[in-house]
Amino acid sequence: MITPQMAVFLVLAAATVAGAVSLILQRHPIHSALSLIVVMVALAGLYLLQGAEFVAAVQVIVYAGAIMVVFIFVIMLLNAGEEERTNISRLARFVGVPLGIVFLFEVAYWIGRATAHLGTTPPEMVSTRELSSLLFREYVFPFELTSFLILIALLGALVLARREDSD
Amino acid sequence: MVPTSYFLVLSAVLFGLGVVAFIFKRNILTVFMSIELMLNAVNLAFVSFSRALGQLQGQVFVFFVIVVAAAEAAVGLAIIILIHRNRGTLDVENVDSLKD
User: Fold this and answer.
1) Looking at the domain A1-82, which fold is it?
2) pTM more than 0.80
3) What are phi and psi of A86, to 5 degrees?
4) What is the pLDDT of residues A65-85, one digit of tens each?
5) Which of A60, A76, A93, A118 best probes binding to B when mutated, by most B CB atoms within 10 angstroms?
6) Which is nearest to B64 in space by CA: B54, B80, B50?
7) B84, B20 contact by CB (below 8 A)
């Protein structure tokens, strides 16, 4: 029988898979970017379903709200057009796609069997206080390193995309 | 109550779809977005295991994965802008040589 959590999971999982398939099938990159945003927001819902509220908030704010916005800026800046329709080979269409789907079901079956002993996810929320005490006590060194990494990435992006003016 | 294996199967399916998009798409921006899709699938696996095993290290790692993905997206998009500026194309089939 379908509990409310299972119903929410099925709706969100269908949204993620639909968004991912749409990313593959769409021809214009802006449509792929919007499909990826749908995937990320649905994944944030799945994180909430498992009780990871801070990760869900960070996913929506940083991943869907900042990184994908930068993607869309670049797509609009470069005026990326539609891909042209290339003909997929007949071997790939009639042998590859069915074999790929069979392989997908096989992988899903074996993962389901191998991890069935893990049981069901407990319903309580993870407190942000515990997560932050872990992040700022045991993992403070990687945390500072990632702030350094962002600084380097920012400098690198600036240097790379700078126009060569004649000074 | 949703079994943990359902989340892991969904993570594997999303990762596989990301790999398919990485191989078959021709626009370099869509290829880059498929990398982000793969990273998201791995994040879902991290969070699922973190909840199933009752530890929080998985979610700390998800935090780091998101930060590294942001840094990588910034530099990667700068490189894509440079490719467009120098080669004039965004098609991965046409940027197949190191020198013009």
Assistant:
1) Four Helix Bundle (Hemerythrin (Met), subunit A) (1.20.120)
2) yes
3) -95, 145
4) 999 999 999 999 988 777 766
5) A118
6) B50
7) no
Q: Please enumerate in sequence order all residues whose Cβ is within 8 A of that of B45, keeping only pairs 6 or more positions apart, or say none.
A: B7, B8, B11, B12
CATH code of the region B4-87: 1.10.287.3510
Residue % of chain B over a pLDDT of 70: 98
Residue that is written with structure tokens 């916005």 in the block: A69
Task: Report d(CA A17, CA A4) in Å as an integer.
Answer: 20
pLDDT of residue B99: 67
Closest chain B residue to A127, measured at CA: B56
Residues in chain B with CB shorter than 8 Å from the CB of A121 are 1-4, 7, 48, 51-52
For residues B78, B64, A46 and A103, what is the CA-based torsion angle, rounded to 10 degrees? 70
Could you give the CA distance from residue A15 to residue B8 in angstroms, rounded to a whole number?
16
**Across chain B, which distance is largest between two alpha carbons, in Å?**
57
Give the pLDDT of residue A166: 52
**Residue B91: helix, strand or coil by DSSP?**
strand
For testing contact with chain A, the best of B34, B35, B36 (most A CBs within 10 A) = B36
Residue with tokens 């990320």: A40
End-to-end CA gap in chain A: 71
Q: Which residue of B has its CA nearest to A30?
A: B30
Positive or negative, the Cα torsion across A6, A18, A29, A90? positive
